[in-house]
Amino acid sequence: MQAYRQRGAYTDAYYLDLTFRVTLNDYIEAFYTTPLFKCERLVLALLVAKPSTDSQARALACRESLRFAAWTVEAREPDQILMCDFLSKTRSWLSCQALPSGTRLWFGSVVVPERISPDGKAWLGFGFHALLGFHKIYSKALLSAAGQRLRSRA
User: Fold this and answer.
1) Which of 57, 69, 82, 108 could form a disulfide linkage to 13, CB 3.0–4.6 angstroms apart?
2) Which sign does the torsion angle of CA 58, 24, 6, 12 carry?
3) What's the whole-model pTM score?
4) Rounded to an integer, what distance in angstroms lies between the CA atom of residue 111 and that of residue 128?
5) How is residue 6 annotated by DSSP?
6) Cα atoms in the 13 Å half-sphere on the side-chain side of 26
7) DSSP string, 22-77
8) Average pLDDT over residues 121-138
9) What is the pLDDT of residues 112-123, one digit of tens each?
C-alpha cells in the first residue's frame, strides 16, 4: 500500500487483535463470507454482474483462484493479500500479523487518484469525498465481522 500512497492514493488500515492464531487463509475466508460482506456481494452481483459464492471465497483463500467477485489478486505473500477491483480504482489489503499472544488482523484500502494535477495534487473524485465517512465506518464493521466469525470458529 505504501507504493500507492507515495503516488498520491488514499490509503487506510485498521486492525483488530485476537487472542488466538489465525492464518491468512482462514482470515480471507472469514472476511469474504460474513453476513455483512455477503450484502456487498449481492450488490456487486446486481449492479455490476460480478456474482460470487462462499466456495469461491474458499478457493481464493486456499490459492486455488486469483479472482473473487469484482477483485483479482494483485499481490500475495504468506501473511498478506492485495486485491484489485475490476476497474483498477481501488485495492483491498488483508494481513495477519503474529503477536506473542495471538494475531493482529489488518484490513486496509487504497483509492487510486482519478487524476494528479501538474502541481502534484491528487484528485480522488467527488464520490470518494462524499462517501469517505461511510467507508471508514464500513471498513471497521467488515473487520469486526471477520473477527467475530473467526472467534466463533476458534
Assistant:
1) 108
2) positive
3) 0.93
4) 8
5) H
6) 16
7) --HHHHHHHHHTSHHHHHHHHHHHHHHS----HHHHHHHHTTS-SEETTEEEEEEE
8) 87
9) 988 787 877 877
Contacts 24+ apart (CB under 8 A), 81-84: 81/24, 81/28, 82/1
pLDDT tens-digit map of 14-42: 999 999 999 999 999 999 999 999 999 99
The C-alpha cell that represents 71 in the structure block: 477483485
For residue 80 the three cell numbers come to: 498478506
Q: Tabulate helix, strand, coil % of the chain (nearest 5).
A: 40, 30, 25
Amino acid at 148: Q
Best CA proximity match to 123, nearest among 133, 113, 112, 131: 113
